[in-house]
Amino acid sequence: MRILVIAEHDNKSLKSCSLPVVTAASELGGEIDMLIAGHNAADAAAQAAKISGVKRILHCDAPLYERGLAENLAQLVASLSADYSHILAPASFFGKNVTPRIAALLDRQQISDITAIHDAKSFTRPIYAGNAFETVEISETPVILTVRPTAFDATPEQAESAAITALPPAEDTDLSAFVSRALTKSDRPDLANAAIVISGGRGLGSGENFKDLLEPLADSLGAAIGASRAAVDAGYVPNDYQVGQTGKIVAPNLYIAVGISGAVQHLAGMKDSKIIVAINKDEDAPIFQIADYGLVGDLFQLLPELRAALDNSA
Amino acid sequence: MKILVPIKRVIDAYVTIRVKADQTGVENANVKMSVNPFCEIAVEEAIRLKEAGKATEVIVVSAGNAATQESLRAALAMGADRAILIETDQELQPLAIAKLLKAVAEKEQAGLVILGKQSIDGDHNQTGQMLAGLLGWGQATFASSLTLENDRATVTREIDGGLETLSLKLPAIITADLRLNEPRYASLPNIMKAKQKPLDRLNPDALGVDVTPRYKTLRVSEPPPRKPGVKVESAAALVEKLRGEAKII
Ligand SMILES: Cc1cc2nc3c(=O)[nH]c(=O)nc-3n(C[C@H](O)[C@H](O)[C@H](O)COP(=O)(O)OP(=O)(O)OC[C@H]3O[C@@H](n4cnc5c(N)ncnc54)[C@H](O)[C@@H]3O)c2cc1C
Questions:
Q1: Are B214 and A140 in contact (CB under 8 A)?
Q2: What is the whole-number distance in angstroms between the Cα of residue B71 and the centre of ligand 1?
């Protein structure tokens, strides 16, 4: 059995969500190849070669892969697929975009967002915003999977580097072209892998309040900042802060929800966090049903108090 | 240019989901059904493009049982011109749906297909991308803005770190994210008018598509429960718990 993992990277370095995918691949059992398709991506390939359990890096370097456009990447992966029993990618926005296209090119039914592997053919995945889990069995090869990164541990590094094999590019499909990218700049930890996440909801009332009340707390805790959909829709914070069924899935050691009611669509993105703290003035808010520690009260009073308490006992 | 908008009928987003005791699925008897919220956004976008003179016709299509026509009527009431029901009682998995849609897109010679980015029941997030692959068209998923000009679509899409803009050759596939638009409510006169709009019926056999499921669902189970929490009295007490009991900060 050989397994192909499609790495997510920005040419310079590997995205951390690629690591749990290798762990999932190891659970399947078999030789693991990792594909780095990019442009001037030698650094990302070298980094990938150090992941424990990876046997071989397939490095395909050409301008048409620089931005990870789904059409070209899917074409390339489809051309490699005959060698593999399983093809895996992270269930990140990147993986969600490209993997179903690969599956369609191969006439295969993808299994999305798996959170557990039972054997090489059966997997568990959340449905209905995580209000239920389905265990499915599929008997075709290759099996096409996207893996929920928070459900598997990150793979460690290995001492010896895997071999890097250069691959020729596939044909340019010329169906789409990259125009621009506007990435949110932040010195804080990345939301998807931060140990602590503090999220604000509609209760924050404005972008200024995020800045004045949440950011200092995030800084004292070394936390990433997240948000509910309502806070994003109101324009308090950028879209990539959204946690939930249709935003990011996070599972930090500590998740602090401030002024968030706890709609199922929000819970879907954070209820696997180790410890959940909720701060809300409504003691009946559903968020308290899943919180380990609940603090009922006005966030405008409680957040400064919390900051003071943190500084005091530090 | 014709715009095709595939839609799905799902359990309403605000219904509490209950897993059946025999673990074969979730309770769906007598629960409120609605058009998948992301599909409504797709319908809205297509109607706006037609209103702006960028499209000639908006066709909505759905695959499902006979009751699915209610959802199609809801989209017609929003302003779509006509509807196609691909009627079947079979369980439909995303690849099968994408194949049905490919047949319809080709039959109708659609110039653009707009879908929701995911349906809130299966949460697969696959159909649009699969359809794009099957048709050999360009794709822009998770769209938060869309403009059409000179036979190309310019699409801003939501990605992990922020936003990305792509330019696609037409015909193309767009999948809608939450912030693409806010769907309108259908007015009463438009709901009445929708009853007269054409709704054609097809079925998988007539389209020559094999919809046999590819995976088997072994069981559907409840999520693991969380242990009940406690309320704390003050910010200071919270910090003490986090330091002393949870040892997390
Ligand atoms: C298809 C679909 C997909 C969705 N996807 C997502 C998703 O991915 N992520 C997501 O988050 N949501 C998502 N939603 C939206 C979700 O249903 C909720 O509407 C949203 O999460 C609500 O955000 P909120 O909790 O910030 O706002 P609200 O529900 O309005 O809650 C605000 C809370 O703040 C509290 N509050 C107000 N003022 C104060 C104060 N001064 N002090 C303390 N507490 C205060 C209130 O008591 C209230 O509980 C989705 C919805 C749909 C239909």
A1: yes
A2: 27
CB contact under 8 A, A111 and B123: no
Q: Under a CB-based contact definition with an 8 Å cutoff, are residues B53 and B12 in contact?
A: no
Contacts of B217 in chain A (CB under 8 A): 134-136
Q: What percent of chain A has pLDDT over 70?
A: 99
Q: What is the pLDDT of residues B63-90, one digit of tens each?
A: 999 999 999 999 999 999 999 999 999 9
Residue A44 has pLDDT above 80, yes or no: yes
Q: Which of A100, A131, A166 is the last residue of a domain?
A: A166
**Residue B123 and residue A174: Cβ atoms within 8 Å?**
no
Q: Are residues A48 and A157 in the same domain?
A: yes
Residues A63 and A162 in one domain: yes
User: Containing domain of residue A246, as a range?
Assistant: 191-313
The pLDDT of A242-252, averaged and rounded, is 96
A158 shares a domain with A110 = yes
| ipTM above 0.90 for this complex | yes
How many whole angstroms from A225 Cα to the centroid of ligand 1? 16
The model's pTM is: 0.97
Same domain? A103 vs A207: no
Q: What's the structural domain count of chain A?
A: 2
Tell me, using a 6 A CB cutoff, whether residue A130 lines ligand 1: no
Give the model confidence (pLDDT) of A167-213 as tens digits.
999 999 999 999 999 998 989 999 998 999 999 999 999 999 999 99
Q: Report how many domains make up chain B.
A: 1
